Amino acid sequence: MAIAGFPDANSTGLPSGVIPTPSGDVTVTQPGTVIDALDVKGTISVQADNVTIENSRITSSDWTGIWIKDGVAGTVVKDSEIINVGSSPNGANGIVGSGTFLRNDIHDVENGIIVTGSSLVQDNYIHHMNAPNVRLGTSLGGPHYDGIEIDGGVSDVVIRHNTVINENSYVSAVMIIQ
């Protein structure tokens, strides 16, 4: 159900007219790299500062679509679609790390965004959370779906004007552990 003025499929993800170039896994080690208009089948691993990922589609079956390594600063992920079809038994996450996350369409994941450090999470659309092959997360052995997750020890996080639709039970739209 869309609410007027809040992020949805029409205001997030790949901008109209963008045709991304096919790619496999991407590992970024050069500071200041800009990834623009890629169709990644795999994971983007960000291991350098000031990396921008924009106008891209990431379809992963590993534990995360975009992994921003601990200690990396200045990452921006915007105007992208992130899908994690959940074939990993260890989790199926959209984005894991810290940075600025703007206007992304994140779906078919166990957890949309796991924030691990100072971050801005704004204008994202997180929906259709689905990770049937994940076996971790609950005492029942299945996934614990969270739109946005912060697992303690993290500060300087702004979560603003996102739409999180979580149709599952034993879940949260936003989970913050102190």
From TrEMBL:
Segments forming a coiled coil: none
InterPro entries according to UniProt: Beta_helix, PbH1, Pectin_lyas_fold, Pectin_lyase_fold/virulence
Region called Disordered, residue ranges: 1-22
SMART domains: PbH1
A family per Pfam: Beta_helix
Annotated ranges, domain Right handed beta helix: 46-169
Protein name: Right-handed parallel beta-helix repeat-containing protein
Organism name: Bradyrhizobium vignae
Upper lineage: Bacteria, Pseudomonadati, Pseudomonadota, Alphaproteobacteria, Hyphomicrobiales
